[in-house]
Amino acid sequence: MIKRLVDFQKRHPFTALMLIAIIVRLLVVIFAQGYGSHAEMQRPSLIFALMKHIQRGTTHLFHNENVAMFLSRAFYTLVSLFTISMVYRITDLLSNKKTAWIIALIPTFSCIMPSFGIISGINAFVAAPFLLYGCMVVLRQEILRKAQMNESVHRTSFFFAGLGFGLAACIWPACVLFILSILLILLILKNPKGALIALLGCVVTIALIVIILLLCHINPLDYMML
């Protein structure tokens, strides 16, 4: 039995990792208490201002506390699974699948919910997968560009990376400093077009969120802070 499990892990490392992550999260969702997030006040963000507006409009749908609690835990579970996936893929790009498996085990057991793991801030927890997605896309395109010696390789992918960066910035404003560092690295690597396109994607996302907030009669300036 153990040999079969080991063989399955070697043949399908990513699938095995996701299965372990799901089992761990099911145990936490079933036996842990609360909504999965700390009751303390979190720093405001554009996305959470929008979510609070939506929540007020759908309160009648989730008046049952147990249902609301389950949905909250399920949301954090999906976010954490995406985070694990991005950690695995980034490590795989930098190293190999065996190393990716080992590194991805860290968020598998330590990044489950804001109230159960190493990332206690709701904003940082939810923004992490979008930030990691942007980094993964940028890294993958840089590897392709260096391998093919072609500066025009999948330029539009940098735009999608920028969309991920923009969502991360809307959720967790402090990660703007990290995003600027990524863009600076692209400039150092002599890929100014990639940096510009990624920045454009980031600006487009933030602009769309701001427009939606304005349509909901929410002042975005109340949430634009590092």
Please describe what this structure looks like.
The protein has helices at 2-11, 13-31, 46-57, 65-94, 97-110, 122-148, 155-171, 176-188, 192-215, and strands at 111-113, 116-117. The chain contains nine helices and two strands, in the order αααααββαααα. With 226 residues, the protein is mostly helical. Helix 4 packs antiparallel against helix 5 (97-110) and helix 6 (122-148) packs antiparallel against helix 7. The model has no long low-confidence stretch (mean pLDDT 83). 73% of the residues lie in helices and 2% in strands. It has a two-stranded antiparallel sheet with strand order 1-2. It starts with a helix and ends in an 11-residue tail after the last helix. The radius of gyration is 19 Å and the shape is flat.
Helix-and-strand structural type: mainly alpha
Task: Choose one word for the global shape.
Answer: flat
Average pLDDT rating = 83
**Gyration radius, to the nearest Å?**
19 Å
Strand order of the largest sheet: 1-2
Helical amount: over 70%
| H/E element order | HHHHHEEHHHH
Total DSSP helices? 9
The total count of strands amounts to 2
Strand percentage = under 5%
Low-confidence stretches: none
How far do the termini sit from each other? 51 Å
Descriptive labels:
flat; 226 residues; 9 helices; single chain; two-stranded antiparallel sheet; mainly alpha
Quick structural overview:
The chain has helices at 2-11, 13-31, 46-57, 65-94, 97-110, 122-148, 155-171, 176-188, 192-215, and strands at residues 111-113, 116-117.
SSE order and pairing:
Blueprint (H helix, E strand, L loop, with lengths): L1 H10 L1 H19 L14 H12 L7 H30 L2 H14 E3 L2 E2 L4 H27 L6 H17 L4 H13 L3 H24 L11
Antiparallel strand pairs: 1-2
